[in-house]
Amino acid sequence: MNLRIKFTKKNYLRYISHHDLMRLFKRAFRRADIPIKYSEGFNPQPRLSIANPLALGIASCSEYMDIELQERMSEHVFMDRVNEELPDDIKILEVKYIENTKSLPSLIRWGFYEIEFKAKNLKEVEELKKLIKNWLKEDEILMKKVKRKGNKVIEKELNIRKLIGNVVVKDKDIIDSDIKKDVNCIVLNCLLKAGDKGNLNPMDFMLSMDKYLNLDIDWDTVDIVRLALFIEEDGKIKLPIY
Amino acid sequence: MIDIEKFNKILKRVEKPARYIGLEKNSIKKNLKDMEVKFAFAFPDIYEVGMSHLGLHILYNLINEEEEIACERVFAPWVDMEKEMIREGIPLFTLESREPVKNFDFLGFTLQYEMSYTNVINMLHLSGIPILSKERSLEDPFVIAGGPCVYNPEPLADIIDFFVIGEGEEVTLEILNRYKDFKKSGKDKRDFLKEVSKLEGIYVPSFYQVSYNEDGTIKDMIPIIEEAPKTIKKRIIKDLNKVYFPEKLIVPYIEIVHDRIPLEIFRGCTRGCRFCQAGIIYRPVREKSILKLLELADNLVKNTGYEDISLTSLSSCDYSQLKLLVSELINRYEEKKVGISLPSLRLDSFSLDILKEIEKVRKTGLTFAPEAGSQRLRDVINKGVTEEDLTTAVSYAFKEGWSNIKLYFMIGLPTETDEDVLGIKNLGYKVKDIFFNQPKEKRKGNLKITLSASCFVPKPFTPFQWVGQNSIDEFNRKINLLKDNIKDRKITFNYHDPRLSYLEAILARGDRRLGKTLIKAWEKGCKFDGWSELFDYDKWIEAFYETKVQGDFYALRERDLEEILPWDFIDSGVSKEYLIKEYKKAKAQELTRDCRLGCTGCGINKSFSGGVCN
Predict the structure, then answer these.
(1) Lowest CB count within 10 Å: B6, B110, B335, B601, which one?
(2) For residue B26, what are the domain limits?
(3) In this protein, which residues make up the domain named DUF2344 (chain A) (predicted)?
């Protein structure tokens, strides 16, 4: 019995890590007496997989996870009981039993973000629109990636152009997330690759944009919210719960 | 409340911001405006360490049960957070209401280890509260302290307004209730101190005067006001089945040091190891009944969702019905996948049998504490463990499939010779031989032996409170002796920094004259001294030099039995005569039996009722 869950991670709880979030759900499920299935073996773990780890400090209106239950329970009862045990800033919005047994993380393709920031070298929204348009015409956008293997630090240059989908600079009055915005900030939406077939962290995207467009971003003001995650199933891009 | 915009900004700049956000399951946020008394509970270390401390959870919930009193938590911010707070002008604040600590009526520190003292000073400073007690006014909170370290409170005598000696569950509420009356009375700070000094277990250092002999030892310590008692008797809880224990525990978002349910099964210890302070100050032994423990466990599992229950005490295998308790807990929680763990193991097959049951198939490492390498020295410290116990236990463990063994020792114990030191190595090699003497087909796993040595620190209220510590050079010589002699890739040797143990010894047995040294060390930047990456020994040495305090006087000097010790005015319930008798028996290598087998006359049953002694 696989249950797909859509949930939020907002406000201060954006500061807990992926592992913290897994632990939080495990404990909430136990408090709520959810008959979750456990793995076999010496160290049984609840069967739970979160779609795509969210970097520390990024909020989200739509995270997903699949869990496996020992017995079927009604979606409403499940949601009410678990929500009762969750903190205000993490709440389940939707649940649905799914047939597909493919692992959720392997289906994830794109993340859609809303990013708010201030930059010293930027006065007009129109100006940024032009800059981004030209920037995305390039075939190659290089980013330095530092990897650690044991004691070795390996630095690699990565072309991230293909990991960037659409980027839209928002006009002041249309904003998607329900999180309050500073009026002096610039807000943009961007679609970035997510999942195990290519993944771009929105913070890395911002660092690249800052470097390429010479914006001089004030990092204290950067605020990132994930608005949506998309999966690919039967060759089609869809929402994980549709 | 602090400036939230600034707070939000600095969270983005620091490592592990979740240390500072609060909002955990079962944390309690009251409206501070409606409260008669506001209590800030301070742990002078980072969140992950402080949240692992059971006493915090007990007192936090106990105080918050009172309708008109709020208890909120505050921890030492890590250095990155401290830097940002100073830069943005954010004072130290509590996690629940994000309220500046300065606006509370009480700031209560728990002192678990001496090397957190500079953090106490630092936290006062970050709160904007004057460091010296005499410089604080009624505008500032009363700064109080409890915990094991306050059995010698003297190094902090100038800083803390009053100390709570012993178990805090009852006396804390007595203090807070008196404060309610005091608040209405319009009297001054000193009046309140006088009032609380009448309570058993409360020590107000400013009401006492200490004078010294020419050789630097204490001449006398006298109360300078009528109300202050000559000796301060520790507080204990008579019946642990009736004492408050929370049914809920705050469940942290981030991983803390002990991330599980701590189920306290008893207090005290009957073993009588002569180096152990906890074994004396937590007397008498008081057990909780199985029924009570099962009831507590049920509530805690239900309210926290934790995946582990740890059976805590000073020596959990001594619980009189351990086997029954463990099997009952396993029966109840196996299906829910809640595990049981036993943190302190003794070297006997009984312990291992229980461990086998708990761990079922999973085999993690096993840790034993023979404490000393030779039988002679184990007799000196009354560790009541023989080499045969160790070989039996280890053979059994290997047979059952464990292959990762850790052994804890101390070096620098009284009367120690090089032969005793090398005994540590010999034990390690013996354990190795036991493993390889098994027929090849029966050996399970990959053998790993860790020998870990800490440097002995003599503590107040132990039979070794009079002895001189080994010098740093002597410690290093002994460490090198072991390092040079342990040459086996199956055996790893770890040791503690002797310089830290030296400072710990000074603070553990220090007097009030150390207050200025502590402040000087802090002024030079010392904090988080227990964290090796921040520990700066040279600054401490400068601080001693500049305040004209001789560290060796406190750490290395052997005391005369007649000498007045800085903590003599505290009554732990165990008589000084008993400690002297034990000290003499130690030198004669004579054992004292476990007092469950018959009273050994420590005196605790004369001064206190309650526990197994009566």
Answers:
(1) B335
(2) 4-233
(3) 3-202
